[in-house]
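Worked example 2:
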Amino acid sequence: MVRHMTIKERNLIGWSTTAVISVAGILLFSSLGLPSASASAANESQASGAGSNSTVTLPAGTRLMVRMVDAVDSETSQPDQRFRGSLEANLMAGDVLVAPKGTTVFGRLLTAESASGRSGGQLEFDLTDIVINGQTYSLSTSSNQAQGQGSSSQAATGASAGGAVGAITGGLGGAIRGAGAGAVAGHVAGGNTRGEKVKVPAGTLVEFNLEHPVSLPVAAR
């Protein structure tokens, strides 16, 4: 004997079927949405990581214009003595700012010889480090020389022997330029009976050039 469902029973079954379909749809939507959100978060993380760890390589010959913070003097300074300076211009790699003007750099004295009765004082110095994002990175640059003239009887060891010796005013035109380019400069003082002393005062503008390529991080902005 066939039993017919009442209207109430048919409504209950229809409601149950609709509920099952609705729950299944919610679960399917959620499962499709979660991977998309995870992928988006992963992409953002990778982009952030790449930005914070970006590095650039500066080629050999890159110029660094440096304003001396510490003075060096042939009469008081010692070989291997370190000094501070700051970049006078932005350090760029193409269109990328590596280090802004004012960035701290460090250098060392390779030679520091005081003037004697017949020989002028001598200084030779280069750059060794640059500070970017609070970290110190090594550099290898050309050296600069400042050579004082000898006494009158030794005048041939001074400017006439190829050294361009004179007072530095601190302007771009008066910058000390690398010895490799043929320029030697400094502030000299002394008489004809004694070799000239040499001093590179604080505030002097000095040009250095990278001797080897160097990879550096990009400065944070």
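The chain is about 20% helix and 30% strand. Confidence is low (pLDDT under 50) at residues 15-52, 153-174, 179-187.
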